[in-house]
C-alpha cells in the first residue's frame, strides 16, 4: 500500500506555544512508497516551524527536496498530499493533487427529507458537505496551462484527462500536481 496518513494531536509536543493545535495529513502515493514516506516525515516538522501562512510554501520545499533525493537515488514515485492545521476554531488546509478536504456542517435549516440521527452518512446526520480544497486536475484550464508551460502535455485518454511528460519520459497522471512529479 502506497498511502499514508499522519495525526499529531498536540503540536505542543513538537513546539512550545502550539499546545492544543493539531496536524493531520493524508498522502495518496503512486509508483512507490518513497515520496509518501519522505513527505510524511518532513511536513509536520516543517509546518510547525512555519505555521499556517506557510503551508503551501513548505509543501513546495518538501517537494523540491524530494525531487533532489529522487534524482540522486533514481526514484520515480510521487504522492498527493492534504495537510490540515487545526488551532482552536481555525482550520487551515493545503493540498497538492486530488486529495480533498471536505467539512460536514449542520445547515441553517434542517432537511425535511432526513430526520434521523442514527446513520453514518452526512445526509443521514443532516450535514452539508463544504469543500475546503480544490483538486488539481488536468481538465482545469489554469492547471492545463501550468502543465504546458512546464513542458508537459494534457490529453484526454479514453475519457480521462491525463498529464503526460515530454517525449522520452514515462509520466502519465490523472492529476496535474503531485509531490515527486516534476510537472
UniProtKB/TrEMBL annotation:
List, in alphabetical order, the Gene Ontology terms for molecular function in this entry.
protein serine/threonine phosphatase activity
Q: Name one Pfam family in it.
A: PP2C
Boundaries of every PPM-type phosphatase domain copy? 1-183
Q: Which Gene3D superfamilies match?
A: PPM-type phosphatase domain (3.60.40.10)
Q: Which SUPFAM superfamilies match?
A: PP2C-like (SSF81606)
Instruction: Provide the protein name.
Output: Protein phosphatase 1f
Amino acid at each position: 500500500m502506497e498511502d499514508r496518513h499522519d495525526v499529531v494531536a498536540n503540536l505542543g509536543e513538537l513546539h512550545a506555544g502550539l499546545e492544543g493545535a493539531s496536524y493531520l495529513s493524508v498522502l495518496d502515493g503512486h509508483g512507490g512508497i518513497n515520496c509518501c514516506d519522505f513527505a510524511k516525515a518532513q511536513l509536520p516538522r516543517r509546518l510547525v516551524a512555519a505555521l499556517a501562512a506557510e503551508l503551501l510554501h513548505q509543501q513546495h520545499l518538501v517537494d523540491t527536496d524530494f525531487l533532489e533525493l529522487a534524482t540522486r537515488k533514481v526514484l520515480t514515485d510521487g504522492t498527493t498530499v492534504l495537510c490540515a492545521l487545526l488551532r482552536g476554531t481555525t482550520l487551515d488546509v493545503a493540498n497538492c493533487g486530488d486529495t480533498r478536504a471536505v467539512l460536514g456542517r449542520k445547515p441553517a435549516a434542517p432537511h425535511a427529507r432526513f430526520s434521523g440521527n442514527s446513520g453514518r452518512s452526512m445526509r443521514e446526520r443532516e450535514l452539508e458537505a463544504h469543500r475546503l480544497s480544490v483538486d488539481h486536475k488536468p481538465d482545469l484550464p489554469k492547471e492545463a496551462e501550468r502543465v504546458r508551460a512546464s513542458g508537459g502535455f494534457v490529453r484526454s485518454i479514453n475519457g480521462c484527462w491525463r498529464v503526460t511528460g515530454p517525449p522520452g519520459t514515462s509520466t502519465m497522471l490523472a492529476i496535474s500536481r503531485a509531490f515527486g512529479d516534476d510537472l
